[in-house]
């Protein structure tokens, strides 16, 4: 199984652009004390990230026969979102406090750990990334 694929790279680029735009819009909405704007930005961002991940993940699974239950995409999303969050904070876009970002990183990290455990369980059902059922039919 290839861990780094073209589709994962394309997803990472799209996620990077969406995350930077989201952080910028979120900063503007928080500075304007706009609860509706902040909520709308968050919902649109979450929906777009889901759709982009679904699109590239589905193509990746078909083209490369990757059998990883989306863990690689989840890991890339985590690294980008948390990394960019801390990065823009230190650049001066103080939309969130460091405490809030750290709590988010830890909470999301726990979810990522659970996803990793399911990933490992799923990998035990495969041979070099290929489902045993598909090999031994």
Explain this structure to me?
The chain is mainly α and 137 residues long. It is 78% helix and 3% strand. It contains five helices and two strands; from the N terminus they run ααααββα. The chain has helices spanning 6-31, 35-64, 71-91, 98-123, 132-135; strands at residues 126-127, 130-131. It has a two-stranded antiparallel sheet with strand order 1-2. A hairpin with a 2-residue loop joins β1 (126-127) and β2 (130-131). α1 (6-31) packs antiparallel against α2. It is elongated and about 60 Å long. The model has no long low-confidence stretch (mean pLDDT 86).
List the helices and strands and how they pair.
Blueprint: H1 6-31, H2 35-64, H3 71-91, H4 98-123, E1 126-127, E2 130-131, H5 132-135
Antiparallel strand pairs: 1-2
In short:
Helix content is 78%, strand content 3%.
> What is the H/E string?
HHHHEEH
Strand order of the largest sheet: 1-2
Residue stretches low in confidence (pLDDT < 50, at least 5 long) are none
Fraction of residues in β-strands: under 5%
Given the helix and strand composition, which structural class is it?
A: mainly alpha
SS field, number of helical segments: 5
Based on DSSP secondary structure assignment, what is the total number of beta strands? 2
Task: Tell me the quaternary state.
Answer: single chain
What number is the mean pLDDT? Answer: 86
Share in helix: over 70%
Large-scale geometry? elongated
Q: Could you tell me how far the N terminus lies from the C terminus, measured between alpha carbons in angstroms?
A: 20 Å
Major β-sheet annotation: 2 strands, antiparallel
């Amino acid at each position: 199984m290839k861990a780094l694929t073209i589709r994962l790279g394309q997803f990472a680029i799209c996620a990077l652009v969406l995350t930077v735009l989201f952080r910028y819009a979120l900063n503007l909405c928080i500075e304007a004390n706009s609860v509706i704007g902040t909520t709308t930005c968050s919902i649109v961002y979450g929906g777009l990230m889901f759709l982009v991940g679904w699109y590239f993940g589905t193509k990746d699974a078909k083209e490369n026969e990757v059998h990883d239950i989306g863990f690689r995409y989840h890991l890339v999303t985590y690294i980008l979102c948390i990394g960019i969050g801390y990065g823009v904070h230190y650049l001066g876009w103080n939309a969130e406090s460091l405490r809030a970002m750290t709590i988010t990183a830890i909470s999301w990290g726990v979810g990522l750990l659970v996803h990793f455990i399911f990933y490992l369980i799923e990998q035990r059902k495969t041979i070099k990334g290929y489902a045993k059922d598909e090999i031994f039919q």
